[in-house]
Amino acid sequence: MAERERAPGVAARAESFIIELSGENLILKIKREDGRVALVELTPDTAFYLREYLSNALATIGMPEEP
Questions:
Q1: How far apart are CA 61 and CA 6, in angstroms?
Q2: Model pTM score
Q3: pLDDT digit string (tens) for 33-66?
Q4: With the CA atoms of 59, 11, 9 and 61 taken in that order, what torsion angle do they form, in degrees rounded to the nearest 10?
């Protein structure tokens, strides 16, 4: 990861997001605080790995997992 990518405050915060089904894949639409929208298409495998990474990251900052 480049130094610029790691610097605090460089990335726009997500204001909201939605997930839509697109064929067999998922489209993650992230609305940023600055009004821009980012679209990311995820395969089922990628979506699963993202879920696992998010769960692990939340656990490291003390957020409980849902039952």
A1: 18
A2: 0.66
A3: 889 999 999 999 999 999 999 888 888 888 666 6
A4: 0
